[in-house]
Design brief:
The complex is a heterodimer of chains A (247) and B (231). Chain A has 247 residues and is α+β, with helices and mostly antiparallel strands. Chain A is 40% helix and 20% strand. Chain A contains eight helices and seven strands. In chain A, strand 3 and strand 4 form a beta hairpin. In chain A, helix 1 packs across helix 2. With 231 residues, chain B is an all-alpha fold. Chain B contains twelve helices and two strands. The mean pLDDT of chain B is 83. Classes of the chains: A alpha+beta (247), B mainly alpha (231).
């Protein structure tokens, strides 16, 4: 039988060693983790215009992704009224860097609606001009989010990509795993003929309105409804931007 | 003369790889498989077997954690106070799992994202804790290490078999390569079915892993009669 003093010493030494090694390792690997995460997010953003690019996003190397961001994309950040924010103003809102890619949508969603800021990625390549916006909402189990690319008429959707935290594989997770789901969003319209805001509905039983509906997912009604809600509420945040850039 | 005899005997007991040691690796792959015989670690076997790549990464992680945790606990077994041994085991496992998690996050961020919580959940994988309590606390480091590796491999083997079946029949691909027909070719423009193989969505759902594991247990028992007699 060991004495209480021995037990205490043993536990203390063990936890110290473990904590030190892990802290050291975590700090050493942090830059790699951060750059991995940044690339991962960038891939998700350009996935929204995936069918407009020469290569699929999955085939691109990290450098090619970075290059698109450097050469073709202008990053902008807006507040709820549609005013553009400078990098300093974004940093004042609690970010280490002030670009659109640094804006954390999950963090923004926890703020008061009036204080939120939203990222915009303007893609330009020859005649192709698209604005990619980010939306975030709730699925069945956890958060879902997406990037929506809009044509220069600020009305027609040219592509979308979705992701999720923990939707059921084979059902809700199809919003990400099944590329056909996101393809359905192409050429849908955000506004009706009179310029009224409609956005997109992911409809159970299949699309009805050819301009504003996409097919829901069988067995994943709650996730599809989450996408609908996200599209209605999320795109609405960008209304001032969309209206002022209309052509 | 006597001295060399002692030396060889000692050497044998530390790093030998004889019949007993082979049994330590071989047993968990067959007679004492953690999944099909002991029915442990089912939770992760259901969750991470939709894609082969995920299953392979998970298996490597479990082999690593199980082997090294067994080794570490076996080295410490005489100095670990009995009253806190479970906590010590947990700290060792959690330590190794965190190392795996940090490394994977740096090496392959996409797989890290896909596996999400399940890497962290290796901590609660009963196979590992079970081996520590049942084997490493009572055996020398070398044998414990082999036992850990063996059990990790036994777990990994089943995981990969299940993942291959699920990926091939659920997605028509293997390791991301399309191997059975494209879905587009089989459905005409009106949605009619032209023939061929249509992905079986049931295989993507967790429930299918249950069926597959059950069938594997059935097959395993029907060729290994020993398993039927002992239970």
């Amino acid at each position: 039988m060991h004495s209480t003093g021995y037990i205490l010493r043993f536990v203390l030494i063990m936890t110290t060693v473990v904590a030190l090694v892990l802290a050291l390792m975590s700090t050493a690997l942090k830059p790699i983790h951060e750059s991995n995460e940044a690339i991962y997010n960038k891939r998700a953003i350009i996935s929204a215009i995936g069918n407009k690019l020469d290569k699929t996003v999955a085939e691109m190397s990290d450098e090619e992704v970075e290059n698109i961001f450097k050469e073709n994309i202008t990053q902008k950040v807006i507040d709820v009224e549609g005013n553009f924010l400078s990098e300093e103003e974004v940093m004042d809102r609690g970010y280490k860097a002030g670009k659109a890619e640094n804006v954390d949508m999950a963090k923004e969603r926890k703020k008061d609606e009036a204080d939120r800021i939203y990222p915009i990625y303007e893609y330009e390549n020859g005649d192709e001009n698209y604005a990619i916006i980010s939306v975030r909402g709730s699925g069945l189990w956890d958060a879902i989010w997406g990037n929506i690319a809009i044509d220069e008429d600020m009305n027609t959707i040219v592509g979308a990509s979705f992701d999720h935290q923990g939707e059921t594989p084979g059902l809700g997770a199809e919003i990400k795993d099944n590329p056909k789901y996101a393809l359905n969003f192409i050429s849908k319209k955000i506004f009706d003929e009179n310029g009224g805001y409609v956005s997109i509905t992911s409809r159970k039983g299949g699309a009805v309105d050819p301009d504003h509906d996409v097919d829901g997912i069988t067995g994943a009604t709650v996730t599809a409804d989450g996408v609908t809600k996200m599209m209605k509420k999320g795109v609405k945040r960008y209304l001032p931007y969309l209206k002022s850039n209309e052509k | 003369m006597a001295e060399t005899a002692v030396k060889t005997a000692k050497k044998e007991s530390t790093f030998a790889f004889g019949k007993k040691e082979r049994k330590l690796i071989g047993d968990p792959l067959n007679d004492n498989n953690p999944i099909t015989v002991q029915v442990l670690g089912i939770c992760s076997a259901l969750a991470v077997t939709t894609l082969v790549k995920q299953a392979v990464v998970m298996s490597i992680a479990v082999v690593f954690v199980c082997g090294l945790a067994n080794l570490a606990i076996s080295l410490l077994r005489k100095s670990v106070p009995k009253q806190v041994r479970m906590i010590v085991q947990l700290v060792v496992i959690a330590f190794l799992v965190t190392i795996v998690e940090l490394t994977l996050k740096a090496l392959d961020y996409e797989v890290y994202k896909q596996l999400s919580v399940f890497i962290g959940l290796i901590i609660t994988n009963c196979i590992i804790m079970g081996r520590l309590e049942a084997f490493a606390m009572a055996n020398d480091p070398w044998r414990s290490f082999l036992d850990g590796i063996g059990n990790g491999l036994g777990y990994g083997a089943i995981l990969i078999i299940v993942a291959v079946l699920r990926e091939v029949f659920g997605k028509g691909q293997l390791l991301g390569w399309k191997i059975i027909g494209s879905e587009e070719a089989m459905i005409d423009t009106t949605g009619g079915f032209l023939g061929g193989y249509l992905n079986n969505n049931l295989m993507v759902l967790s429930a299918s892993a249950m069926f597959i594991i059950a069938v594997l247990i059935w097959i395993h028992r029907s060729y290994n009669r020993k398993l039927v007699d002992i239970s």
